[in-house]
Amino acid sequence: MPLVLASSSPRRRDLLARLGAAPDRVAAPEIDETPLKGELPRAYALRLAVEKARAVARADGEVVLAGDTTIALGRRILPPATTEEVQCDLLSALSGRRHHALSAVCVIDAAGSERTRLADTIVAFKPLTAREIDAYIACGEGIGKAGGYAIQGRAEGWVRFLAGSHSGVIGLPLFETRALLVTAGILA
């Protein structure tokens, strides 16, 4: 069965390869990622994964995989870092605190059935100095990333505690993804 990855993220492609799965096609879904009024972070992450999977055209027999990673501080959904100023605000808010990296996955199987899974990873950063934040912003790796950081890069040196899926914080929780791909007949 052909696998379609509904993501333009090279990180998701690399993570998928760790499972021994390679997409036959990659399609970047275009959806509105604005949180709904009163929407909680878990529901938001799951909704986006489902909407991304549905936004990609699926030919007969194809299986679609989509994911979304959302960073939440309490009930607050943190946006991606679109500018250095936003990134500074995000990192300052995360400094010395625990937050949740919610990584949702949706698979639409060849018959059109949708299944979802969600990995909730607790991440705690050490207290960050203004100098550390400025240096991280200058390196450029957190721009465009949920919460303003890439755990697979320099920000990993700030993690004093992590409980859950490391791959989920990067962008695709492998345990949950594998289970969905087995059910869909992509993996044995």
From TrEMBL:
<feature type="site" description="Important for substrate specificity">
    <location>
        <position position="152"/>
    </location>
</feature>
<keyword id="KW-0963">Cytoplasm</keyword>
<dbReference type="GO" id="GO:0005737">
    <property type="term" value="C:cytoplasm"/>
</dbReference>
<dbReference type="GO" id="GO:0036221">
    <property type="term" value="F:UTP diphosphatase activity"/>
</dbReference>
<comment type="similarity">
    <text>Belongs to the Maf family. YhdE subfamily.</text>
</comment>
<keyword id="KW-0378">Hydrolase</keyword>
<protein>
    <recommendedName>
        <fullName>dTTP/UTP pyrophosphatase</fullName>
        <ecNumber>3.6.1.9</ecNumber>
    </recommendedName>
</protein>
<dbReference type="GO" id="GO:0009117">
    <property type="term" value="P:nucleotide metabolic process"/>
</dbReference>
<feature type="site" description="Important for substrate specificity">
    <location>
        <position position="11"/>
    </location>
</feature>
<feature type="active site" description="Proton acceptor">
    <location>
        <position position="68"/>
    </location>
</feature>
<dbReference type="InterPro" id="IPR029001">
    <property type="entry name" value="ITPase-like_fam"/>
</dbReference>
<keyword id="KW-0546">Nucleotide metabolism</keyword>
<dbReference type="Pfam" id="PF02545">
    <property type="entry name" value="Maf"/>
</dbReference>
<comment type="function">
    <text>Nucleoside triphosphate pyrophosphatase that hydrolyzes dTTP and UTP. May have a dual role in cell division arrest and in preventing the incorporation of modified nucleotides into cellular nucleic acids.</text>
</comment>
<dbReference type="InterPro" id="IPR003697">
    <property type="entry name" value="Maf-like"/>
</dbReference>
<dbReference type="GO" id="GO:0036218">
    <property type="term" value="F:dTTP diphosphatase activity"/>
</dbReference>
<feature type="site" description="Important for substrate specificity">
    <location>
        <position position="69"/>
    </location>
</feature>
